[in-house]
Structure formats: C-alpha cells, structure tokens
Amino acid sequence: MRARDLRLVSGQRSSTASMLRARPGDVHPADVDPAADQPASRINIAAKARMLSRVSRGCRVSEIGTMANPELALAIGYAREAHRRTLEALLDLDSALAAVLRTTREPLVGQMRLTWWHEALTRLDTALPPAEPVLAALAATVLPRGVSGVRLAGMIDGWEELLDDDAPRDEAMMRFAEARGAGLFGIAGAVLGVRPDDPLAPAGTGWALVDLARHLRDRHAGERALALARTALDTATRPRWSREARALGALAHLALLDAAVPLDQPLPIGSPRRVARLAWHRLTGR
C-alpha cells in the first residue's frame, strides 16, 4: 500500500503520548534539532478532560491536532505511577513510527526511514542513545525494565506492511496489527507486570486495526479492517482484566467504542458515555 494512501495513520493514537508531554515523534529525527524537544509538562487530567470534552466533541482527532485526548490520558492514568512514563515512552515510539508513513510519499524513502529506526533501536542494547528524545526516553524508562532494543525494533515489521504499493489485504492488515499492536501491548504488559491470562494480543491487534481503519483513504479496506478488529476486540473485552493491565484494557475498550462509530462520522471523544465506560473498567476490570 502506498504511504500516500494514508491520511494520518495512527493520528488517534498519536495524541496519546502527547497528552502528558510534548510529542517528539511527528517528524523524522533527521529533520529536526534534537535540542528543540520541549520539556515535560504535567497536566491536570480532570480539568483537561472537562475542557476537551467540550472542544473535541464532534471533531476528528486529526482536526484537534496535538491537543491532548482526555480519554487516553485517563487510560494511561490507570497504570501505576511508576509505570506511566514507561507507557508514555512506548506510545511515543509508536507515534514516531506512524509519523514515518504520515510524512513520507515514496515507499523507498519510507523504508529507509524505518530502517534507520530499526538500527537505532537495536543499538540501544549496546550503546548509549543518540540525542533523539524518543530513543533517550526508551533507554531511560523501558530498557531498564528488561525490554531489549531488539524487541522494540520488532514493531517496525508491522509498519513495513503499509509500504507496499498494493491495496491492503486482510493478511497484510493482520500482520501489521500483530506486529504493531500486539507487539506494543506485549511489551507494555511485560513492564506493567500483567497476568498471563490478560488478553494482550487480541487487545493490541484490535486496537491497531481500528486505528488503521479510521485513517485509510480506501473506505472498503477500512470496513474490512473494522471487521477484523471487532473479532479481536470481542475476545479482548470479554474477560476481567487484572488491575495491573487496566490501562491497556481501557485502550481496548476505547477501540471497541471507536469501532462502533461509522468511518464517515467523527469520534465523540470525551462524551459522558465513553468516559463512564472507562471508569467502569477501572473499577471492575470489565
């Protein structure tokens, strides 16, 4: 699939990492001055949620731009405080990889940029990180928790599926979602200390498929991605999630809510029904 066939792949999820601090992954590291990264800024999640529920209701995430998504801020807040920055760093990496496709028109150039990220992540296992904010955050918060750079680099396999010139077939979309979504959730689960029976793989797969569906230009391909996502999310949202995994469970439930919204309709971000669903999951794990 041509990179130009994506509007803002993962734009919904891209706002996740920026909700607690500025997102560094909007452009490729070679295009920016690493020293220009903004310092972390803490937000009052409740106040942000109240404000954004007013301005974001009825808007597409891509129209909100870098404004924080209050639902995702709440979801990250379900993780233990010691793990939140780690989860932010993982989502920042996901944002950076999405930005490669979002800002690249030629598949060959996109492949070269993904290769840069693969090599940079792998080198984290043997060398100090370069002056790049995403890599520095991963080295500081993720690798010390037993996650290798090689494992992080495995997420890139999914994004490479979207560089193909052909329209995305079901098999390609599943490979993308498993490497990106299940891979990300698996790594996050290892850091959070979740139980073996927490349904991380189907949750991550469904989450990635819903995000992909809402950012494909091809409406038919988007509908197929949603159908695949619903199957995975039905499995992921049935059991009770452990307390340690509820930040990830909340993302799965948000994805299921997103899947119920027609692709030509905006997501009602911050609506009372959606926020109440998150609160119920936090309390019960369901």
Report what the structure shows.
The chain is mainly alpha-helical and 286 residues long. 60% of the residues lie in helices and 0% in strands. It has 14 helices and no strands. Helix 11 (200-213) runs parallel beside helix 13 (246-259). The longest helix is centred in the middle third of the chain and has 23 residues, at 170-192. The chain is globular.
Q: How much strand content do the residues show?
A: under 5%
Return the string of H and E elements: HHHHHHHHHHHHHH
Please tell me the overall pLDDT. 81
C-alpha Rg (nearest Å): 17 Å
Q: Which class in CATH terms?
A: Mainly Alpha
Summarize this structure as a short list of keywords or feature phrases.
286 residues; mainly alpha; Farnesyl Diphosphate Synthase; disordered N terminus
In short, what is this structure?
The chain has 286 residues and is mostly helical. The protein is 60% helix and 0% strand.
List the helices and strands and how they pair.
Elements: H1 11-18, H2 45-55, H3 61-64, H4 70-77, H5 81-102, H6 107-123, H7 133-141, H8 149-153, H9 156-160, H10 170-192, H11 200-213, H12 219-236, H13 246-259, H14 272-284
Helix pairs in contact: 1-5, 2-4, 4-13, 5-7, 5-10, 10-11, 11-12, 11-13, 12-13, 13-14
